[in-house]
Automatic annotation (TrEMBL):
Family: Belongs to the CEF1 family.
Name of the protein: Pre-mRNA-splicing factor CEF1
Domain Myb-like: 2-53, 54-103
Natural source organism: Trichomonascus ciferrii
Pfam families in UniProt: Myb_Cef (PF11831), Myb_DNA-bind_6 (PF13921)
Membrane spanning stretches: none
Bias type Low complexity, positions: 285-294, 348-359
Positions of region (Disordered): 110-129, 230-305, 346-383, 398-430, 470-492
């Protein structure tokens, strides 16, 4: 008979026994743990815990980042799975299985690409199936497999093992257990005695701390982390930037001091200085201790800086837009705005449609670029890093050495890479450079227009004559298309476009005040209707009706229009509105002498002499205001402080009054409730008293009766 070898697939009962034993004996006494399991050794118990039962083991699906990291580390440290596992965050067996799975997937992918049998051909079994454990054989990785379900009828040896484990794990009354109970009871007694002592001392006015005084050289391993080195925040080293910022701040302070500009100290600074002066000796000593500890920590960091890897500096990529390009874009914007202000308005002040089409409108294109969603380009199949890496590894392991006559492996970009894989994505689109490029193209527009103008005029006028046969075919096609039922989605789209056009036309029919969202006068300020027939009176009356009609049609937010009579005026059609605008523009030209009011206003408003005078007047007014403010602060400073003090006292008195009022109302409500409940309680108590009195009376009568009976019996006996 073959000897029995411990091991094999783990069951649920064995897993539960192992967990209970670890909770009692810990993670170091594996011999004691294995003594509870008849079919497992100490090494197998430890491997089962480290490979499957440990709660820190990740059993979720592998992500793409983990696969890339695994392949990269497998190239740097081949066959060193115990070193790779903690870096990836998985166990060594999980890393091996995933690595083989990636190689099998790559092989299957290439086999599927190169196969000629098609989708219905007989495919060979994958390599993963060939590595599966045959039923009945010993599994070398049984500790990393899920537990086998328990059978309904367990074997006798399993039942004996389970009963013995229950008895041993339930035995908590041994010598060590009794000693632990005594120590626990003694510690609880000491704790209660210390609490009673602190309570008595606190009643006497003495406060005592429970914890012992911490030594400067000692380390509390329960609260602190020994030999902890905190990494600097961020990914890159920014110490040089901090030094540069500090130097720039010092230069700025010196410049301000040289110019005589002193940074004013606030009230908080004064309070902070006062509090700093009021520090006690104990606080100063603690501050000195903290400073000494900080210096020691800094020296420790300096000493260990040679052993810690230095972080590389932050090196930003070169800017896509240079300074000269930015200057050229700004100049082009100024020139464009100037041309637009000159050519976009004619003599009457109205925009000219003939010149508006020749000028570029980059605001709309810029807004479109800003609102356009730039999405990350998708990685193509050729750029799949995992597939390339697995293919290279498989070629390296499968290809025979070139010294023995085999072909050399093709060179790959991933084979010689010593850095982790990164995302090679397309560059971010730059709207500024694109805009400058568009402006360069549009700069050729005048030359093209001039070239078109120099073309000779056409000598002949041509007319296109469609043959009769083609006309008949077009009519037949039109009739056929008319007979086809229109799609509901297309019809809805057309109706939506028509509604949008009608809405825009309705918006254009509104008055200019509503279109431009200008402020409107209140109806209270409108003049009353007059019965005069002069042209000015008629114009004012029509203006009044128009304002009332706009207020009724498009009421302003938060303004009530009730109480004013009036009717809504009908909107003008497009032809009538165009005629009215032509007459208004002609009248403006004749009255203003062919000068635009807005242009003259803009010239007056943006004149350099006027701007200089305005700046001088504003500076003088500001100086006078500052002087008056200082005088008023000196005169009214005492009153302001007095007002603050009185307002504070008033608020405190008001709070006290509110609190007293709440207390009085609460007690009054309590008194009313008690008065209501008092009668019911008195009546219930009176009933109980009456019941007790009746019971006492009946008891006394029975006592008297029984006493008389006893006396009568005694008299009869004596006789």
């Amino acid at each position: 008979m073959a000897p029995y070898i411990k091991g094999g697939v783990w069951t649920n009962v064995e897993d539960e026994i192992l967990k209970a034993a670890i909770s009692k004996y810990g993670l170091n006494q594996w011999a004691r743990v294995s003594s509870l399991l008849a079919r497992k050794t100490a090494k197998q118990c430890k491997a089962r815990w480290n490979e499957w039962l440990d709660p820190s083991i990740k059993k979720i699906e592998w992500s793409r980042e983990e696969d890339e990291k695994l392949l990269h580390l497998a190239k740097l440290m081949p066959s060193q799975w115990r070193s790779i596992a903690p870096i990836v965050g998985r166990t060594a067996n999980q890393c091996i299985e995933r690595y083989q799975k990636l190689l099998d997937d790559a092989e299957q992918r290439e086999r599927g690409d190169l196969s000629l049998t098609g989708t219905e051909g007989d495919a060979s079994a994958p390599a993963e199936d060939s590595r599966r454990v045959i039923v009945g054989s010993s599994d070398t990785l049984a500790e990393a497999r899920p537990a086998r379900p328990d059978a309904i009828d367990m074997d006798d040896d399993e039942k004996e093992m389970l009963s013995e484990a229950r008895a041993r794990l339930a035995n908590t009354q041994g010598k060590k257990a009794k000693r632990k109970d005594r120590e626990r009871l003694l510690a609880e007694t000491n704790r209660l005695a210390m609490l009673q002592k602190r309570r008595e001392l606190k009643q006497a006015g003495i406060n005592m701390k429970l914890g012992t005084k911490k030594s400067k050289t000692s380390i509390d391993y329960n609260a602190d982390i020994p030999f902890q080195h905190k990494p600097a925040p961020g990914v890159y080293d920014t110490s040089e930037e901090k030094d540069a910022n500090l130097r720039a701040k010092n230069r700025f302070d010196k410049l301000m001091k040289k110019k005589g500009i002193i940074r004013g100290e606030t009230k908080d600074d004064d309070d902070r200085g006062q509090k700093r002066k009021e520090l006690t000796e104990e606080q100063k000593q603690s501050a000195a201790d903290q400073a000494a500890a900080a210096r020691a920590h800094k020296l420790q960091q300096i000493n260990q800086s040679e052993q810690i890897a230095k972080r590389r500096k932050l090196e930003l990529p070169a800017p896509q837009v240079q300074d000269n390009e930015l200057e050229r874009i700004v100049k082009q914007d100024k020139l464009e705005n100037k041309m637009r202000s000159v050519y976009m308005a004619d003599d009457s002040g109205l925009s000219s449609g003939a010149t508006s089409g020749l000028l570029p409108d980059h605001e709309r294109s810029k807004g479109a670029i800003e609102h356009q969603s730039t999405r990350t380009p998708q990685i193509s199949a050729d750029d799949d890093y995992i597939y390339k890496a697995t293919r290279d590894v498989r070629d390296l392991t499968a290809t025979q050495s070139s010294l023995l006559g085999g072909e050399s492996v093709r060179e790959s970009s991933t084979a010689t890479s010593i850095v982790p894989p990164g995302d090679n994505l397309a560059g971010t689109p730059n709207p500024l450079v694109a805009r400058a490029r568009v402006e360069d193209e549009e700069g050729k527009r005048p030359s093209l227009i001039g070239a078109f103008c120099r073309l000779p005029k056409p000598k002949n006028d041509f007319e296109i004559a469609i043959p009769e046969e083609e006309e008949q075919e077009m009519t037949e096609v039109r009739e056929e298309t008319d007979g086809v039922e229109e799609d509901a989605g297309e019809r809805e789209k057309e109706l939506k476009a028509l509604r949008e056009v009608e809405r825009q036309k309705a918006v254009k029919r509104r008055s200019q005040v509503i279109q431009r969202n200008l402020p409107r006068p209140l109806l209270d300020n409108l003049p009353k209707a007059s019965k005069e027939t002069t042209p000015q009176a008629l114009i004012e009356e029509e203006l009044r009706k128009l304002v009332i009609s706009d207020s009724i049609k498009y009421p302003a937010e938060g303004v009530s229009q009730n109480g004013f009579g009036g009717t809504q005026l009908p909107d003008l059609d497009d032809e009538t509105r165009a005629l009215a605008e032509q007459e208004i523009s002609a009248e403006l030209i004749t009255q203003s002498g062919k000068h635009n009011i807005e242009s003259t206003d803009s010239e007056l408003a943006f004149g350099p002499e006027v701007a200089d005078k305005l700046v001088e007047s504003l500076s003088s007014v500001a100086e006078k205001a500052n002087k008056n403010e200082k005088k008023l602060s000196l005169v009214l400073g005492g009153y302001m402080k007095r007002q603050e003090m009185l307002s504070k006292k008033l608020s405190e008195a008001h709070e006290a009054y509110q609190k007293a009022y709440i207390d009085s109302s609460v007690y009054a409500e309590l008194r009313d409730m008690e008065s209501i409940a008092l009668t019911s309680r008195i009546s219930s108590l009176q009933e109980e008293v009456n019941f007790l009195a009746d019971a006492e009376r009946t008891g006394q009568e029975r006592y008297r009766y029984l006493k008389d009976e006893i006396q009568a019996l005694q008299a009869n006996e004596m006789m």
